[in-house]
Design goal:
hydrolase, PG_Endopeptidase_C40, 9 helices, Papain-like_cys_pep_sf, NlpC/P60 family protein, alpha+beta, 341 residues, elongated, endopeptidase fold (from Nostoc punctiforme), protease, 2 domains
Length: 341
Protein backbone atom coordinates (compact mmCIF):
# COMPACT_ATOMS: atom_id res chain seq x y z
CA UNK A 1 0.00 0.00 0.00
CA UNK A 2 1.42 3.33 -0.88
CA UNK A 3 2.12 5.67 2.10
CA UNK A 4 0.02 8.74 2.54
CA UNK A 5 1.52 11.98 1.24
CA UNK A 6 0.89 15.32 2.84
CA UNK A 7 -1.62 17.40 1.05
CA UNK A 8 -0.10 20.02 -1.17
CA UNK A 9 -0.35 23.63 0.03
CA UNK A 10 -1.58 26.36 -2.14
CA UNK A 11 0.65 29.31 -3.06
CA UNK A 12 -1.26 31.66 -0.75
CA UNK A 13 -1.04 29.22 2.10
CA UNK A 14 2.67 28.83 1.56
CA UNK A 15 3.04 32.58 1.44
CA UNK A 16 1.12 33.03 4.70
CA UNK A 17 3.20 30.41 6.41
CA UNK A 18 6.40 32.09 5.31
CA UNK A 19 5.16 35.49 6.45
CA UNK A 20 4.24 34.10 9.85
CA UNK A 21 7.64 32.47 10.20
CA UNK A 22 9.42 35.63 9.10
CA UNK A 23 7.44 37.69 11.63
CA UNK A 24 8.35 35.34 14.46
CA UNK A 25 12.01 35.49 13.44
CA UNK A 26 11.98 39.28 13.31
CA UNK A 27 10.39 39.48 16.75
CA UNK A 28 12.98 37.04 18.08
CA UNK A 29 15.82 39.11 16.60
CA UNK A 30 14.41 42.31 18.16
CA UNK A 31 14.07 40.67 21.54
CA UNK A 32 17.58 39.29 21.22
CA UNK A 33 18.94 42.71 20.38
CA UNK A 34 17.18 44.24 23.40
CA UNK A 35 18.48 41.45 25.65
CA UNK A 36 22.01 41.82 24.25
CA UNK A 37 21.90 45.57 24.84
CA UNK A 38 20.69 45.09 28.39
CA UNK A 39 23.40 42.54 29.11
CA UNK A 40 26.03 44.85 27.65
CA UNK A 41 24.83 47.72 29.79
CA UNK A 42 24.81 45.48 32.86
CA UNK A 43 28.31 44.29 32.06
CA UNK A 44 29.55 47.87 31.86
CA UNK A 45 27.86 48.89 35.07
CA UNK A 46 28.43 45.85 37.28
CA UNK A 47 32.26 45.45 37.48
CA UNK A 48 32.84 48.72 39.34
CA UNK A 49 30.72 51.23 41.15
CA UNK A 50 31.28 54.74 39.88
CA UNK A 51 33.23 56.76 42.45
CA UNK A 52 31.61 59.97 43.56
CA UNK A 53 34.05 62.58 44.83
CA UNK A 54 32.92 64.73 47.70
CA UNK A 55 31.70 68.05 46.39
CA UNK A 56 34.07 70.95 46.87
CA UNK A 57 32.94 73.18 49.75
CA UNK A 58 31.44 76.44 48.66
CA UNK A 59 32.92 79.85 49.38
CA UNK A 60 30.22 80.34 52.01
CA UNK A 61 31.08 77.03 53.72
CA UNK A 62 34.82 77.74 53.68
CA UNK A 63 34.28 81.20 55.12
CA UNK A 64 32.11 79.77 57.89
CA UNK A 65 34.77 77.14 58.67
CA UNK A 66 37.55 79.73 58.66
CA UNK A 67 35.58 82.07 60.91
CA UNK A 68 34.84 79.24 63.35
CA UNK A 69 38.52 78.22 63.43
CA UNK A 70 39.56 81.83 63.93
CA UNK A 71 37.20 82.01 66.90
CA UNK A 72 38.75 78.85 68.34
CA UNK A 73 42.20 80.37 67.90
CA UNK A 74 41.05 83.49 69.73
CA UNK A 75 39.80 81.32 72.59
CA UNK A 76 43.08 79.43 72.68
CA UNK A 77 44.95 82.72 72.64
CA UNK A 78 43.03 83.93 75.66
CA UNK A 79 43.64 80.60 77.38
CA UNK A 80 47.29 81.05 76.49
CA UNK A 81 47.29 84.49 78.09
CA UNK A 82 45.73 83.03 81.24
CA UNK A 83 48.07 80.05 81.29
CA UNK A 84 51.02 82.33 80.67
CA UNK A 85 50.25 84.02 83.98
CA UNK A 86 49.97 80.62 85.67
CA UNK A 87 53.22 79.52 84.05
CA UNK A 88 54.96 82.60 85.41
CA UNK A 89 53.53 81.85 88.86
CA UNK A 90 54.66 78.23 88.60
CA UNK A 91 58.12 79.29 87.52
CA UNK A 92 58.39 81.71 90.45
CA UNK A 93 57.14 79.00 92.84
CA UNK A 94 59.65 76.52 91.43
CA UNK A 95 62.43 79.05 91.86
CA UNK A 96 61.37 79.76 95.46
CA UNK A 97 61.12 76.02 96.19
CA UNK A 98 64.56 75.38 94.74
CA UNK A 99 66.10 78.19 96.76
CA UNK A 100 64.34 76.89 99.87
CA UNK A 101 65.69 73.40 99.18
CA UNK A 102 69.20 74.82 98.95
CA UNK A 103 68.76 76.65 102.27
CA UNK A 104 67.42 73.50 103.92
CA UNK A 105 70.33 71.49 102.54
CA UNK A 106 72.71 73.97 104.15
CA UNK A 107 70.78 73.76 107.42
CA UNK A 108 70.82 69.98 107.20
CA UNK A 109 74.55 69.96 106.65
CA UNK A 110 75.07 72.30 109.58
CA UNK A 111 73.11 70.01 111.91
CA UNK A 112 74.95 66.99 110.55
CA UNK A 113 78.24 68.72 111.32
CA UNK A 114 77.10 69.38 114.87
CA UNK A 115 76.00 65.79 115.39
CA UNK A 116 79.23 64.62 113.79
CA UNK A 117 81.25 66.72 116.22
CA UNK A 118 79.24 65.22 119.06
CA UNK A 119 80.00 61.73 117.79
CA UNK A 120 83.68 62.49 117.36
CA UNK A 121 83.92 63.82 120.89
CA UNK A 122 82.22 60.72 122.25
CA UNK A 123 84.53 58.47 120.26
CA UNK A 124 87.64 60.30 121.49
CA UNK A 125 86.39 59.81 125.01
CA UNK A 126 86.26 56.08 124.31
CA UNK A 127 82.51 55.75 124.07
CA UNK A 128 80.59 53.90 121.43
CA UNK A 129 78.23 56.52 120.06
CA UNK A 130 75.44 55.53 117.65
CA UNK A 131 75.61 59.06 116.27
CA UNK A 132 78.70 58.09 114.31
CA UNK A 133 76.75 55.31 112.68
CA UNK A 134 73.96 57.77 111.93
CA UNK A 135 76.30 60.19 110.19
CA UNK A 136 77.92 57.43 108.14
CA UNK A 137 74.65 55.74 107.25
CA UNK A 138 73.49 55.73 103.62
CA UNK A 139 69.89 55.74 104.86
CA UNK A 140 69.69 57.97 107.99
CA UNK A 141 65.91 57.58 108.25
CA UNK A 142 66.17 53.78 108.44
CA UNK A 143 68.85 54.10 111.09
CA UNK A 144 66.67 56.49 113.09
CA UNK A 145 63.82 54.00 112.93
CA UNK A 146 65.79 51.57 115.06
CA UNK A 147 64.35 51.55 118.57
CA UNK A 148 67.71 51.58 120.32
CA UNK A 149 68.86 54.55 118.30
CA UNK A 150 65.65 56.46 118.95
CA UNK A 151 66.09 55.78 122.66
CA UNK A 152 69.64 57.05 122.46
CA UNK A 153 68.72 60.27 120.69
CA UNK A 154 65.86 60.83 123.09
CA UNK A 155 68.40 61.01 125.91
CA UNK A 156 70.60 63.48 124.03
CA UNK A 157 70.16 67.16 123.16
CA UNK A 158 66.58 67.19 121.89
CA UNK A 159 66.92 70.45 119.98
CA UNK A 160 69.79 69.10 117.85
CA UNK A 161 67.90 65.91 116.97
CA UNK A 162 64.69 67.81 116.27
CA UNK A 163 66.53 70.31 114.14
CA UNK A 164 68.11 67.53 112.12
CA UNK A 165 64.78 65.83 111.44
CA UNK A 166 62.99 69.04 110.54
CA UNK A 167 65.78 70.11 108.20
CA UNK A 168 65.74 66.71 106.45
CA UNK A 169 61.98 66.72 106.00
CA UNK A 170 61.83 70.34 104.88
CA UNK A 171 64.57 69.81 102.31
CA UNK A 172 62.78 66.77 100.89
CA UNK A 173 59.44 68.58 100.67
CA UNK A 174 61.05 71.59 99.02
CA UNK A 175 62.78 69.47 96.42
CA UNK A 176 59.60 67.55 95.60
CA UNK A 177 57.64 70.80 95.32
CA UNK A 178 60.24 72.25 92.95
CA UNK A 179 60.22 69.13 90.77
CA UNK A 180 56.42 69.04 90.65
CA UNK A 181 56.24 72.73 89.71
CA UNK A 182 58.73 72.18 86.92
CA UNK A 183 56.70 69.25 85.60
CA UNK A 184 53.49 71.28 85.68
CA UNK A 185 55.14 74.13 83.80
CA UNK A 186 56.40 71.76 81.12
CA UNK A 187 53.05 69.96 80.74
CA UNK A 188 51.02 73.17 80.52
CA UNK A 189 53.29 74.66 77.91
CA UNK A 190 53.36 71.47 75.83
CA UNK A 191 49.58 70.95 75.80
CA UNK A 192 48.87 74.55 74.96
CA UNK A 193 51.38 74.74 72.12
CA UNK A 194 50.06 71.48 70.63
CA UNK A 195 46.49 72.81 70.62
CA UNK A 196 47.46 76.15 69.13
CA UNK A 197 49.58 74.51 66.43
CA UNK A 198 46.84 72.09 65.40
CA UNK A 199 44.09 74.72 65.13
CA UNK A 200 46.41 77.22 63.48
CA UNK A 201 47.41 74.73 60.77
CA UNK A 202 43.77 73.87 60.10
CA UNK A 203 42.88 77.56 59.91
CA UNK A 204 45.72 78.31 57.48
CA UNK A 205 44.65 75.40 55.26
CA UNK A 206 41.00 76.47 55.23
CA UNK A 207 41.90 80.10 54.65
CA UNK A 208 44.12 79.10 51.74
CA UNK A 209 41.27 77.20 50.07
CA UNK A 210 38.93 80.15 50.55
CA UNK A 211 41.36 82.70 49.16
CA UNK A 212 42.05 80.44 46.18
CA UNK A 213 38.33 80.40 45.40
CA UNK A 214 37.79 84.09 46.05
CA UNK A 215 40.81 86.31 46.86
CA UNK A 216 38.53 89.13 48.02
CA UNK A 217 37.48 87.03 51.03
CA UNK A 218 40.87 87.44 52.72
CA UNK A 219 40.02 90.96 53.81
CA UNK A 220 36.74 89.74 55.31
CA UNK A 221 38.29 87.09 57.56
CA UNK A 222 39.13 87.78 61.21
CA UNK A 223 42.74 88.66 62.03
CA UNK A 224 43.95 85.95 64.38
CA UNK A 225 46.23 86.83 67.29
CA UNK A 226 46.39 89.00 70.38
CA UNK A 227 49.80 90.61 69.88
CA UNK A 228 50.31 94.26 69.00
CA UNK A 229 50.93 93.39 65.35
CA UNK A 230 47.61 91.55 64.96
CA UNK A 231 45.79 94.34 66.79
CA UNK A 232 47.34 96.98 64.56
CA UNK A 233 46.41 95.01 61.46
CA UNK A 234 42.78 94.84 62.60
CA UNK A 235 42.71 98.64 62.68
CA UNK A 236 44.41 98.90 59.30
CA UNK A 237 41.91 96.50 57.71
CA UNK A 238 39.10 98.93 58.53
CA UNK A 239 40.70 101.37 56.07
CA UNK A 240 40.36 99.15 53.00
CA UNK A 241 39.08 101.28 50.14
CA UNK A 242 40.35 104.59 51.50
CA UNK A 243 42.31 106.64 48.94
CA UNK A 244 46.07 106.97 48.73
CA UNK A 245 47.28 110.53 49.30
CA UNK A 246 50.96 111.38 49.35
CA UNK A 247 52.12 112.38 52.85
CA UNK A 248 48.79 111.44 54.50
CA UNK A 249 48.64 109.46 57.72
CA UNK A 250 44.91 109.08 58.32
CA UNK A 251 42.35 108.80 59.46
CA UNK A 252 40.74 108.98 56.00
CA UNK A 253 43.65 109.04 53.54
CA UNK A 254 47.07 107.42 53.67
CA UNK A 255 50.38 106.86 52.00
CA UNK A 256 52.22 103.56 52.59
CA UNK A 257 54.14 104.45 55.76
CA UNK A 258 51.30 106.68 56.94
CA UNK A 259 48.97 103.67 57.02
CA UNK A 260 51.33 101.56 59.12
CA UNK A 261 52.11 104.51 61.40
CA UNK A 262 48.40 105.19 61.98
CA UNK A 263 47.58 101.51 62.61
CA UNK A 264 50.30 101.02 65.22
CA UNK A 265 49.44 104.30 66.87
CA UNK A 266 46.02 102.83 67.67
CA UNK A 267 47.69 100.16 69.82
CA UNK A 268 50.02 102.55 71.62
CA UNK A 269 53.14 102.22 69.45
CA UNK A 270 54.65 105.31 67.83
CA UNK A 271 56.33 104.82 64.46
CA UNK A 272 58.00 107.55 62.39
CA UNK A 273 56.34 108.55 59.11
CA UNK A 274 59.18 107.22 57.00
CA UNK A 275 59.84 103.75 55.59
CA UNK A 276 63.58 103.93 56.31
CA UNK A 277 62.96 104.63 60.00
CA UNK A 278 60.26 101.96 60.32
CA UNK A 279 62.79 99.49 58.89
CA UNK A 280 64.72 99.93 62.15
CA UNK A 281 61.66 99.98 64.44
CA UNK A 282 61.70 96.33 65.44
CA UNK A 283 63.18 92.87 64.95
CA UNK A 284 63.95 91.69 61.43
CA UNK A 285 62.29 88.40 60.47
CA UNK A 286 62.59 86.20 57.41
CA UNK A 287 59.87 85.82 54.82
CA UNK A 288 59.13 82.33 56.11
CA UNK A 289 58.54 83.66 59.65
CA UNK A 290 55.98 86.31 58.71
CA UNK A 291 53.02 86.82 61.02
CA UNK A 292 49.93 89.04 60.60
CA UNK A 293 50.86 92.65 61.34
CA UNK A 294 54.55 92.38 60.46
CA UNK A 295 55.87 95.24 58.32
CA UNK A 296 57.02 94.20 54.85
CA UNK A 297 59.38 96.32 52.73
CA UNK A 298 60.17 96.45 49.02
CA UNK A 299 62.91 97.78 46.74
CA UNK A 300 66.54 98.38 47.62
CA UNK A 301 65.80 101.89 48.88
CA UNK A 302 62.77 100.67 50.91
CA UNK A 303 60.49 103.21 49.26
CA UNK A 304 57.38 101.04 49.61
CA UNK A 305 55.95 99.00 52.48
CA UNK A 306 52.83 97.33 53.81
CA UNK A 307 51.49 95.07 56.57
CA UNK A 308 51.49 91.30 56.22
CA UNK A 309 48.00 89.79 56.26
CA UNK A 310 48.67 86.11 55.65
CA UNK A 311 48.59 83.63 52.78
CA UNK A 312 51.37 85.51 51.00
CA UNK A 313 49.48 88.78 50.90
CA UNK A 314 49.78 92.23 52.42
CA UNK A 315 47.65 95.30 53.10
CA UNK A 316 49.09 98.50 51.68
CA UNK A 317 48.40 101.95 50.27
CA UNK A 318 49.88 101.55 46.75
CA UNK A 319 50.17 104.89 44.95
CA UNK A 320 48.32 107.99 43.79
CA UNK A 321 45.03 107.11 42.16
CA UNK A 322 44.70 103.85 44.06
CA UNK A 323 43.18 102.85 47.41
CA UNK A 324 44.19 100.89 50.49
CA UNK A 325 43.83 97.23 49.53
CA UNK A 326 45.15 93.69 49.86
CA UNK A 327 47.70 92.52 47.29
CA UNK A 328 50.20 89.65 46.85
CA UNK A 329 53.77 90.00 48.04
CA UNK A 330 54.85 88.20 44.89
CA UNK A 331 55.85 90.30 41.91
CA UNK A 332 57.56 92.96 43.98
CA UNK A 333 61.25 93.17 44.94
CA UNK A 334 60.96 92.00 48.55
CA UNK A 335 63.57 93.69 50.77
CA UNK A 336 62.70 92.25 54.18
CA UNK A 337 60.30 92.31 57.11
CA UNK A 338 60.16 93.78 60.61
CA UNK A 339 58.21 92.65 63.65
CA UNK A 340 57.44 95.74 65.67
CA UNK A 341 56.05 93.98 68.76
Amino acid sequence: MEPLRPASLSRSERSGACSAGAGRAARFRRRGAVLTGALAALALASPTVAAHADPEPSTKDLKAQATKLADQLEQLTEQYNGLKVKLQQSQRAAKVATENAKRQEKALQAVRDKVGNLAATSYMQGGSDPTASFVASQDPQAFLDQAATLHYFASQDGSKVQGLMQAMQAAQRARKAAEERARQVSDLRGRLEAQRKKVSQTYEKTRGKLVKKDPTQLGKLPVVGSGKGAQALRYAMTKIGRPYVWGASGPSTFDCSGLTMWAYKQVGISLPHYTGSQWNAGTHVSRGQLQPGDLVFFHADLHHMGMYVGDGKMLHAPHTGDVVKIAPLAGRPFAGAVRVA
